[in-house]
Specification:
Number of strands: 14
Helix content: under 10%
Oligomer: single chain
Structural class: mainly beta
Order of helices and strands: EEEEEEEEHEEEEHEHE
Strand content: 35-45%
Largest sheet: 6 strands, mixed, barrel
Shape: elongated
Length: about 200
């Protein structure tokens, strides 16, 4: 008796079981975690295949969350930040829960309202060696860390640099009451800020 291997063919799309939602190659999707009551995984669909037994699989490219990467979550990582990895894997299509949007960092910061299925990515992550690309990103404030879109910042009217209120010894409410903010570098003062009410 000879054993026949499953023949696979590529599909252009797949309708998520129990829904009318169609996913295609290139879409970003939420995948069911094996542990119940946990945050779904996020991945990009690279390929959709069906075998001669009608089993549908998706080849996915994983997005990593900061806490799942080398070095863990840092102060500048936003709650919805993901890293597009070089980690590919095949999964049953039944693990796909729905679509989501993974925006560029720039587009994410322009969203008027961030929904539950909105995420952003500004780094690629080489999972096997724990390397991030790009190596460097622009830093802000006196603390010299990259921007976290979840943290409020104020812009200097002169140099256009951005600052965290806490790094200026101020609260968010104090900053919001200012008509104008000029940093100490532009004002030529040694103290933290120059403010006009």
């Amino acid at each position: 008796m000879t054993k026949t291997s499953a023949v696979k063919r590529n599909l252009d799309s797949y309708t998520i079981r129990g829904t009318n939602t169609v996913v295609k190659v290139g879409d970003n999707v939420l995948l069911r975690s094996p542990e119940s009551n946990t945050t779904p995984y996020v991945a990009q669909i690279n390929k959709i295949q069906i075998d001669n037994r009608n089993n549908v699989t998706v080849q996915i490219r994983w997005y990593y969350r900061p806490e799942d990467s080398n070095g863990g979550r840092k102060l500048f990582h936003g709650e919805k930040e993901l890293f597009l990895s070089d980690h590919y894997e095949f999964q049953s299509a039944y693990t796909v829960q729905g679509k989501c949007m993974v925006h560029s960092f720039k587009n994410y910061t322009k969203l008027e309202r961030v929904g539950a299925k909105d995420y952003y990515c500004r780094f690629e992550y080489k999972a096997a060696i724990g390397l991030f690309l790009p190596f460097r990103v622009r830093v802000y404030c006196k603390c010299q860390i990259p921007e976290n879109p979840d943290h409020f910042m104020v812009q200097c009217e002169e140099c256009k640099n951005w600052y965290h209120p806490s790094c200026l010894g101020m609260t968010i409410n104090q900053v919001k009451q200012l008509d104008e903010f000029i940093c100490s570098s532009c004002n030529g003062e040694e103290d933290e800020t120059s403010m006009k009410n």
